[in-house]
């Protein structure tokens, strides 16, 4: 064991003790309100066995029943002579050979695994985050360059956009997009939610890009121009690559915030992860368990993003 490790191990022990104390405090707090933990109710909100009813299409008779593993193959003969063959789970079979059936009678059910509401909410959060993040990055890059433009109109318009978006709450912007712009242009709630998140993210990314470009020494641009590169070529091949290395940490932080900000689109009836959690609570009455699972799913998304950004930052740092 190195001397550095010998010096640090007491601090790691202290960290573990603090986490244990926090956990015990949480357990004690729930015991004071006599909360009954029901973790057994949670798995069905991730995946469950969906039952699909198999029903008779017409009046007739059960003419044959044959076993096929854990399935039962039921043949129904209608009054007109037409046959209907249904395959159901054997333990759900509700008729016997020779029984008369009416139109709509349930013969049995077929079961298959289906994604629960929390997984569907996770998927919705993921695709909204990816789409709005991609558009937000493009908008932010364009806005940041406009803030540095020598054209006064581009500078003024980009400044108005950034200050307007950063100066108003995201929740208000979502409402405006959905209830005003969305109504006028007949936009879907998903489009309105993604557009609001993309424009909100773009404003912050624009400021990050502007600060990153301005942090590069002027001599870099002058050297590129002296080598015969045009202004756009100098920006693309010399300035932006260096600026990207410097703005990577705040960009990663912004995209992590975007993942969490997607929870706000639930106000316009988009069933993302947070809204799925609220709906699960209304049927399971397992408030703490569901919210802990929702928080864990957000961590599952954001922790890899942080790790990827850190590795990319270290790799780019070595290439300097």
From TrEMBL:
One of its GO terms (cellular component) is ATP-binding cassette (ABC) transporter complex. Its main location: membrane. GO terms for biological process: amino acid transport. CDD domains: TM_PBP2. The chain crosses the membrane at residues 12-30, 126-148, 160-181, 288-305. It is found in: Cell inner membrane; Cell membrane. One of its GO terms (molecular function) is transmembrane transporter activity. Coiled coil: none annotated. It holds the Pfam family BPD_transp_1. This is Putative glutamine transport system permease protein GlnP. Keywords: Amino-acid transport, Cell membrane, Membrane, Transmembrane, Transmembrane helix, Transport. It comes from Metapseudomonas resinovorans NBRC 106553. Belongs to the binding-protein-dependent transport system permease family. HisMQ subfamily. Gene3D superfamilies: MetI-like. Part of the binding-protein-dependent transport system for glutamine; probably responsible for the translocation of the substrate across the membrane. Residues 122-309 form the ABC transmembrane type-1 domain. It is a multi-pass membrane protein.
